[in-house]
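User: Please fill in residues for this 398-position structure.
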């Protein structure tokens, strides 16, 4: 039996001394009388791990577990002060904690599952829906209601832009951005914030199609894999032999022929065609990487779905559907703490070399959060159960 609770063991991955150093540097506790930054962060992290989506519930848990919470350095929590903190506290402190956890996870041994060296990143974004009447600042777009083009419905939300490192499924960077659909377009944000690194391979969908941006990858000696856009003119310079039993259709070296595209990208590209044997769907990929087999290019794009699994894991297992506040600071603070909780659990899995899946790890930690059980027992292998054979049945003589 462990001396400390599961929550106490988890939060030790964020050193209190370093956290207080950030608080002093940023002045986060200046003028604060009751709810200090450490307690504010701890209450939000506890909410994410335990699944509590109510300020009243957090207040009751901290009140009834006062001795355990004080042993971790937390003070009492009142719903009014917690609501005020969510509304007014700066997000830079949470961004510092996220960056620290990210660097710790990146320093652990990881594998992306492919037989070549170099980073493999999946670039994508997800929309976190909000209520427009409660969050008017998060207006996103007006879309037609059903088949009636004259009636429009407004939607609200923020977008999370990220690139997932497939070695460990950890976010390489995260940007939370509100604004209209035009301001929040995937390609527009990526061109401003994403810098291709030499030797890395970026996988993305057609929403990021821009030939001039692809030229930047080649200039940086970075690679990309994406699906070809519709109605793109090209000239085939060379066709390679493919194994059609693997679903491959073509493996070609091409040059773009459009006047604008030819000016934006003057180099050679690779076009790989693939037909899914199960669904019969045809997919055509474009890349500037020529050293890999054609089937590996297809497998790379298939691995892009791991970023979708990351989004689903964040939305289903952590609390970013029901929010504790409706101001921009409150919404973004909850998302940042959800990402911190994801990184801490991922660090636990990698440190303990656990084979348990990420959703299962989140579920079991959240269920046993206040119990005194070692983390290596929770995330370790289940004990083997010996099943004895049933006793022989008596034969009845008739």
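Assistant: Residues filled in for all 398 positions:
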């Amino acid at each position: 039996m462990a001396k400390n609770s599961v929550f106490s063991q988890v939060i030790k991955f964020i050193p209190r001394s370093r956290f207080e150093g950030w608080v002093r540097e940023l002045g986060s506790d200046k003028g604060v009388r009751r709810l200090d930054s450490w307690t504010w962060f701890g209450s939000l992290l506890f909410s994410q791990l335990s699944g509590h989506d109510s300020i009243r519930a957090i207040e009751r848990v901290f009140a009834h577990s006062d001795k355990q919470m004080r042993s971790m350095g937390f003070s009492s929590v009142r719903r009014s002060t917690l609501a005020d903190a969510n509304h007014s506290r700066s997000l830079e402190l949470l961004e510092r904690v996220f960056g620290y956890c990210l660097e710790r996870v990146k320093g652990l041994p990881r594998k992306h599952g492919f037989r070549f060296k170099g980073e493999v990143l999946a670039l994508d974004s997800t929309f976190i829906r909000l209520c427009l009447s409660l969050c008017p600042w998060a207006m996103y777009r007006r879309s037609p209601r059903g088949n009636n083009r004259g009636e429009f419905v407004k939607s609200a939300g923020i977008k999370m832009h990220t690139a997932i490192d497939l070695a460990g499924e950890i976010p390489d960077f995260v940007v939370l951005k509100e604004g209209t659909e035009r301001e929040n377009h995937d390609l527009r944000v990526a061109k401003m914030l994403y810098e291709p690194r030499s030797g890395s391979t970026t996988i993305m969908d057609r929403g990021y199609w821009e030939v001039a941006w692809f030229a930047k990858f080649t200039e940086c000696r970075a690679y990309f894999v994406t699906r070809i856009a519709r109605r793109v003119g090209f000239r085939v310079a060379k066709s390679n032999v493919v194994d059609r039993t693997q679903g491959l259709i073509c493996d070609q070296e091409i040059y773009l022929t459009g006047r604008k595209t030819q000016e934006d990208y003057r180099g050679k590209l690779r076009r790989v065609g693939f037909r899914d044997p199960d669904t019969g769907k045809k997919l055509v990929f474009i890349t500037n990487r020529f050293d890999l087999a054609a089937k590996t290019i297809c497998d790379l794009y298939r691995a892009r779905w791991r970023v979708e699994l990351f989004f689903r894991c964040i939305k289903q297992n952590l609390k970013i559907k029901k929010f504790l506040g409706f101001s921009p600071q409150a919404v973004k603070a909850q998302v940042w703490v959800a990402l911190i909780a994801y990184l801490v659990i991922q660090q636990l899995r990698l440190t303990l070399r656990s084979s348990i899946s990420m959703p299962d790890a989140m579920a079991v930690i959240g269920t046993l959060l206040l119990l005194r059980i070692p983390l290596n027992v929770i995330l370790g292998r289940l004990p083997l159960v010996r099943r004895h054979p049933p006793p022989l049945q008596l034969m009845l003589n008739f």
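For context: The longest strand covers residues 148-165.
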